[in-house]
Amino acid sequence: MSEQLNLIIVLVAVVAVIGIGAAFFLVRGRKAPKGTYTGPRDANDPAPTLTTDAPSTEAPEVVAPTETAEAPATDVVDETVGKVVVPVDVPEPVQGRLARLRARLSKSNNVLGKGLLALLSQDKIDEDVWDEIEETLLLADLGTEPTLELVDALRERVKVEGSRDPQRVHDMLREELIKLVDPSMDRSFIPVRHADRPNVIMVVGVNGVGKTTTIGKMARVLVAENKDVILGAADTFRAAAAEQLATWGDRVGVPTVKSDVDGADPASVAFEAVKAGIEQEVDIVMIDTAGRLQNKVGLMDELGKIKRVIEKKATVDEVLLVLDATTGQNGLNQAKVFSEVVNVTGIVLTKLDGTAKGGIVVAIQRQLGVPVKLVGLGEGPDDLAPFDAAAFVDALLD
Ligand SMILES: Nc1nc2c(ncn2[C@@H]2O[C@H](COP(=O)(O)OP(=O)(O)OP(=O)(O)O)[C@@H](O)[C@H]2O)c(=O)[nH]1
């Protein structure tokens, strides 16, 4: 009897210890800020006071995650301090995302992969079949030069290796496509803080391609990698853009520097965001910019100015050009003009879930000599994946 009593007491004690431990980890949240950090990184922090050595007199504000009007409906009040606590999302891990989102990609792109496999597996591949292969590649926006290169390589291999065995045809096509997508390009995307300043990323592109959404998704990726991030809402042109960005930040506990003045100087907001990032010793500052058509000279000049003003404070480590995969050749023209103005270092190709034109990856990389680093595969918060040549080709073919 007393043994049973002892056993019960021990069990109750173990359950209590586990319960206290779990509660501790739940309230602890993610990584504590480092060093002399003074900004509103946690829900209860006060907002920092910005100094005024900005290039403009309109000092943008830093919006702490809890200060925006659009707090999620699931907010709870912490009874002990009487403040609203915004529950912070836990983003999906980044590793293997492309493989996990593969179904989305292959659904819209199997015309390309499966179509090619079917054509190449025919008993006899005559000139008509080669023409069809060429047409399939061109329709997938691969571009003329890569298409001709691929067809030549396949012709050669079919001559030597034959085309009867489906597995061999699959492997041959896989190898040649991977070569075209170029696995040797550096696509690393988890940015690293410098010894004395944050890594600065600028995001550019034409209207509606998905810049703000992509920054929101990237913030989640970086938070999942335990990085401290600040967002800069230098899209002062579209009224709702700053709020949209801040809402994305809120969801993962990342603050946003923005201006409440409509049409404020975007370079000034970008400058303040970088300055706040330096002062608060964050790892990464991401600057959203307004959508602009590549043929509007004034707006393109403004983009150059934003970069130059940021560079008074810190180097811009990465300029990501966001392109909508569904826009085909027009995306190529945009890429060219943007890279002339701001030295694009990486491409984010969005909306790949809505197009059968996956070949645009190859065409853009060829045109700019810049790698596709990330791909957008849906509107969901975690529908952004690091780009990987082999995983991409596998998704097209399997
Ligand atoms: N299907 C799909 N939709 C996407 C993807 N990325 C963004 N979108 C959608 O594209 C639309 C435009 O996205 P925004 O992020 O507002 O675009 P933006 O480039 O910031 O727009 P501007 O500020 O007006 O230039 C939104 O409805 C997004 O949900 C993607 O990968 N797939």
Protein described:
The strands form two sheets. The chain has a nine-stranded mixed sheet with strand order 1-6-5-7-4-8-9-10-11, sandwiched between helices. The chain has helices at residues 2-28, 97-100, 102-120, 127-139, 144-161, 166-181, 211-224, 241-251, 266-279, 297-310, 329-342, 360-368, 389-397, and strands at residues 61-63, 76-78, 83-85, 199-204, 229-234, 256-258, 284-289, 318-324, 346-350, 372-376, 384-386. α5 runs antiparallel to α6 (166-181) and α7 (211-224) runs parallel beside α8 (241-251). The chain has 13 helices and eleven strands. Among the domains are: 97-181, Four Helix Bundle (Hemerythrin (Met), subunit A); 199-388, P-loop containing nucleotide triphosphate hydrolases (Rossmann fold, 3-Layer(aba) Sandwich). The protein is globular and about 70 Å long. It has 398 residues and is α/β, with parallel strands linked by helices. 46% of the residues lie in helices and 13% in strands. β8 (318-324), α11 (329-342) and β9 (346-350) form a beta-alpha-beta unit. It binds guanosine-5'-triphosphate. The site of guanosine-5'-triphosphate has 21 residues, from α7.
Largest sheet: 9 strands, mixed
Mind telling me the CATH class of the domain at 199-388? Alpha Beta
Number of strands: 11
Q: Uncertain regions: pLDDT < 50 for 5+ in a row?
A: 19-58, 66-78
Which CATH architecture of the domain at 199-388 would you pick? 3-Layer(aba) Sandwich
Approximate shape: globular
Fraction of residues in helix: 40-55%
Distance between the termini: 64 Å
Put simply, the count of helices is 13
Order of helices and strands: HEEEHHHHHEHEHEHEHEHEHEEH
At the third CATH level, what is the topology name of the domain at 199-388?
Rossmann fold
Helix-strand makeup class: alpha/beta
Mean pLDDT: 79
- Rounded radius of gyration (Å): 25 Å
What are the distinct ligands in this entry?
guanosine-5'-triphosphate
